[in-house]
Amino acid sequence: MANPRLKWLVALLAVAALCVLPFLFKNYRVFQFNLVLIYAIAVLGLNLLTGFNGQISLGHGAFYAVGAYVAAMLMDKLGVPYWATLPIAGVLCFGLGFLMGFPALRLGGHYLALATFAFALAVPQLLKYKNIEGYTGGVQGIVLSKPEPPFSFRFLDQPFSADRWLYFFTLVVAAVMFLLAWNLLRGRIGRALIAIRDHPIAATAMGINLPLFKSMAFGISAAFTGVAGALGAICVAFVSPDSFTVFLSITFLVGVVVGGLASIPGAIFGAIFIQFVPNLADQISKSAPWAIYGAVLIALMYLMPTGAMGLLKSLWARLRPATSVG
Question: What's the predicted TM-score (pTM) here?
């Protein structure tokens, strides 16, 4: 058994590294790190639904869009502080996701995937609707201002810029969301969600309310994604309907699979893939970046059929006997 002091030392070193990280790079790279944390929250939300509850969704880009627009409209029209928009976006997306969960009671597998796919198609078009473009900005979207840091200083000859402040803000929010997911899955609700995924008939026989818990899974998953969308609007400082196409929903699902189904830390690996692999593919080939992206994705699925966390677990299982014998 590992030494508890060693665990605390590793944890403290990791926190120190995360705190120093944004001062080692320029603002654009820090902005990319912010997006990694935001996408990790969104991927985690989808994984709660797909990986831990067994419901396939191709519509989480729509929840991300709703969260982003809620934050943007509250900040732009009502002057609500950026940090206060996160819980509001989460609550509204929870309600929307809970309502979306009711059709899921009668649908399953690819039928549910198609229903959520239709939802992802509809939301960007609804955001362009003329009768509400006074609130949503229509096709032009809404331009925001990045929040300024509450104080200023220099560290490693780098100023404490807006992107660096948002990095720490997003890091704290991401840590809270991951902790909430971890506690949720360790409790009664988490065990019920996993039981429904593995044996729905046996779960019903044990007294688990399938309609309630499946709808709740959709709501919680949508709430996580809505918070991620609100953070995305704050960090990017711009929202428009064309930013939330169906491809965004598919991208989140790719992140879940690459990181590892039913894995909380896997969301981080999935988010890193979502953010950096398309940029890397574009640098390799300007003429056919998506061909490179597809080739990398196929290679990863061949090398890591259970995702990044599945590979790490198998490597740890192989190394553990050797370390215990030594």
Answer: 0.94
